[in-house]
Write a structure and sequence with these properties.
This protein has 176 residues and is an alpha/beta fold. The chain has 8 helices and 5 strands. The chain has a 5-stranded parallel β-sheet with strand order 2-3-1-4-5. Bound molecules: adenosine-5'-diphosphate, shikimate-3-phosphate and magnesium ion (MG).
Length: 176
Amino acid sequence: MKNIVLIGFMGTGKTTVGRLLANRLGRPFFDSDKKIEYENNLSIREIFEVYGELYFRQQEKMIIAKLSRYNNAVIATGGGVVLSLENMNNLKRNGVIITLTASVETILERTSRRNTRPLLDDFDQREKIVNKLLKERAELYYNADYSINTNSKSLQQVINEIMFFLRQGGYLRGKR
Ligand SMILES: Nc1ncnc2c1ncn2[C@@H]1O[C@H](COP(=O)(O)OP(=O)(O)O)[C@@H](O)[C@H]1O
Ligand SMILES: O=C(O)C1=C[C@@H](OP(=O)(O)O)[C@@H](O)[C@H](O)C1
Ligand SMILES: [Mg+2]
């Protein structure tokens, strides 16, 4: 069975939704950021601080290439995965791609709970940075099989919507 791959901006819910969806489907779950942290024995924040973003993007490419060879998994990606066409081609080869979206307001609210995202460190500039990055990336997030606006939807609602799409698309082979 194809992998189910979640893409989208920071704070749209990829990591949280991915884990719950994998539970619901009884499939293995992988988060590319978690894998990068594990393989480097450093947090994403530390990787950015010590080695810089370029190194992080190289690590991300390697991990995405690896995860893309899996089957039947749910894969949550980092928000910048779309910046590389190579990443997207790898993920698409054996995956159905679902984009999660949210408004700037929702993104700011959800990403303010934990400061684990080095790109959003500058507190006073966060709204500006989110707007700028969204502008640069918005089009890239269209590169998907399905898209869900998660604004004012509960996690359960988002997961139900994904399940509906997967069933309709025949991605679940008649399973619940
Ligand atoms: N639909 C939702 N409703 C309410 N909170 C959400 C929703 N989706 C995600 N969150 C919360 O937003 C925060 C960021 O979610 P996360 O899964 O880390 O996003 P991402 O991996 O896309 O950056 C978490 O605290 C998570 O619980
Ligand atoms: O958008 C980005 O460039 C990033 C998103 C983060 O993941 P989440 O989207 O899960 O927050 C993480 O990969 C890193 O901080 C860079
Ligand atoms: Mg995440």
